[in-house]
Specification:
Two copies of one chain form a homodimer. With 390 residues, chain A is mainly alpha-helical. In chain A, 75% of the residues lie in helices and 0% in strands. Chain A is globular, with a radius of gyration of 20 Å. The interface between A and B is large, with 66 and 64 residues.
């Protein structure tokens, strides 16, 4: 019964994250930017490298993880599987191009600068990931989730996240000195894709059954609690199948969107997402160590220059991928939607550092690229947005 | 960026807690019992001593702490400070009697059984605490929060929690071999009470100002986020003032109840409380180690017998305290409302064990007493309830 949890510190950091997110989100809106950009900036300021009110602790990470999972569940609830399937082919094309272009660019430049193949592989791989959290949030804010462009971005981001984690499993194994063969790659990929397919195929009838049971309940708050439990359960399964929990949460949302209680679930979910999703964006912002970004410090410069270069490659690679879409859509907007790297890029960088595949300055450069692409995407999306669907 | 948080395990346990809480809550309701009793039982079954799906980890404790804090914030929002002040005198009488009776009984019996004074002090002190979480939840379920009885119980439970933590600070110091003097006791008590008074005196005008600011915001979910941030901030302050975070959260709710947005805040809060408060009750249930309760195991018997005895004392002491209330109220109901021990009793037991003030069997006996009083209170309250206020 003795615990390491400091409730006081948790509550203070949670409160600070909420106030910071809403304050900077409001300021961002007032200067015509998406609120999420303000929330990211609030994180930079509240994080350990500036004020230090929001630590990068497990306790805050927990709130962030719950926040982003429920956000993706909510986005899934607002997604029509039929519409998503219709854009399946262009979404797949965008996703694949969006992995090949940045990987090739990152790999080539790193190699050309004299780094070993392993380092180049990690840098390339880190640039392939798209942050589904950031993208989904901006699309939702701009009310373009239901447009063709929104659906293509969302579909491509999901594919990207699934493949990205397969790539991560592979490069981690290489970095650890392990051998990999085609069978392992196929197995890992098949598991992640198979789980997603199974979650949808089984999730839709299961979700309907669940709603039937919930209907007969008498206690308070059953619909919300059981829906969230469903989402958490599928998210757990996705993790177990070597995919990302947020992809599972999204699939759970898509499944429950096919029930007759879609809007009631959404209503019960919104206040919870409003409370926890900002913690995720603040947390991502807090991971920026501003001390490494000061160009006045000479030691920072090589990493900054490489970071700018990688950010440029990462940006152009993903942006160009948007032009692989077809069907009378605004392709520049799709490209912009693929740009933010966010959490998966950070995981790549972190694994690369711990396995020594990435030397410290290259690690910092990858972080710079991840954050620059993350911060540039919300204003760019706002600038290029198509008309809302309704 | 390397973390100890296992997101998969967290999501699975959270999902299991939600499903268990709603399933057993529903069953409890169907047999005419308060849902919270079902949630506690769900915790016993899901906890480490039976199925083990909900571990007593920091990650689950975090959800539980957020849940109970927001529950008390919600209860505070539904509390009228004027009505609470009107019953101040009887509430104080009930709280004081509810501390003196169980302390005297627990202390006397433990001493009579041959234990040293320090052990007797800890046992007595552990029996003084009232679980404001359990009580508030049952009162809310029975829709009697706004009755005179409900207000007296709530007021007495708050006083009890504040004093209980002062007592805890004192006995911990004694157990640690430290000297305590009257000045320390007075200082500790004055700090806790002073904070509560300050939170209300400053919280009411601050809350109104906050609502004025919130009104002018454009981003989504500002009211809910800022209100919760306010509650978390006051809860953090309460902890810093050596009081309980939940007492702070309650005070924050009472303060915001005096603003014109009371009902809107409540509406934004309910779905969040529905999701997190059950985790608290499941967590409390999960702390029961059923293996220690098996009377067929001979070694368990002394602790079980002492536990039954202490449960009886704890029950009668608190129940009798209810009869110290006045003003044409149903005093048996008030007594029943003071009975559950819950979290603070567990903290006492745990501190007693680690400081070796409580030998293992006495520690188990205290746990038995805490849990028996906690589990008996919901059905008893339902049985004795007055008519709802509206």
């Amino acid at each position: 019964m003795e615990h390491g949890l400091d409730v006081g510190a948790l509550f203070l950091a949670f409160a600070a994250a909420l106030v910071g997110a809403k304050l900077f989100g409001e300021l961002a809106e007032r200067v015509g930017q998406p609120a999420v950009l303000g929330e990211l900036l609030a994180g930079v300021i509240l994080g350990p490298s500036v004020i230090g009110l929001v630590p990068l602790s497990d306790a805050i990470l927990e709130l962030a993880e719950i926040g982003v999972a429920l956000l993706l569940f909510e986005v899934g609830l607002e997604t029509d599987l039929g519409e998503l399937a219709k854009v399946g082919a262009p979404a797949l094309a965008v996703a694949l191009a969006g992995m090949v272009f940045p990987f090739a660019g990152g790999y080539g430049v790193t190699l050309a600068l004299g780094h070993p193949i392993l380092t180049a592989t990690f840098v390339g791989a880190a640039l392939t990931a798209t942050s589904i959290g950031i993208t989904a949030r901006v699309l939702s804010e701009l009310k373009v989730l239901a447009t063709r462009e929104g659906q293509i971005i969302l579909g491509a981001a999901v594919v990207d996240d699934v493949f990205g984690l397969v790539v991560l499993a592979i490069v981690s194994k290489i970095a650890g000195g392990g051998r990999i063969d085609a069978a392992t790659i196929v197995k890992s990929g098949a598991l992640a894709i198979g789980f997603l397919a199974a979650a949808l195929v089984l999730g839709i009838p299961l979700g309907r059954r669940l709603m039937g049971v919930v209907e007969r309940a008498r206690v308070r708050g059953v619909l919300g609690a059981m829906s969230v439990a469903f989402a958490l359960f599928v998210a757990w399964g996705a993790k177990a199948a070597e995919s990302a929990p947020i992809v599972g949460a999204f699939a759970a949302g898509v499944a429950l969107a096919r029930t007759n209680r879609r809007h009631d679930i959404d209503a019960a979910l919104k206040p919870v997402v409003d409370l926890f999703a900002p913690v995720f964006f603040v947390y991502v912002g807090a991971e920026v160590d501003v001390r490494l970004l000061n160009p006045a410090v000479a030691e920072n410069r090589p990493a900054l220059v490489l970071g700018l270069l990688l950010a440029g490659i990462g940006f152009l690679g993903k942006f160009a991928a948007g032009f692989c879409a077809w069907g009378g859509v605004r392709r520049a907007f799709i490209g912009a939607g693929m740009v933010p790297r966010g959490e998966v890029g950070l995981i790549f960088a972190s694994v690369g550092l711990t396995t020594k595949a990435l030397p410290e300055p290259v690690f910092v450069a990858v972080l710079v690229a991840v954050f620059l692409t993350t911060f540039v995407a919300p204003p760019l999306l706002k600038l290029l947005r198509p008309q809302p669907a309704d």
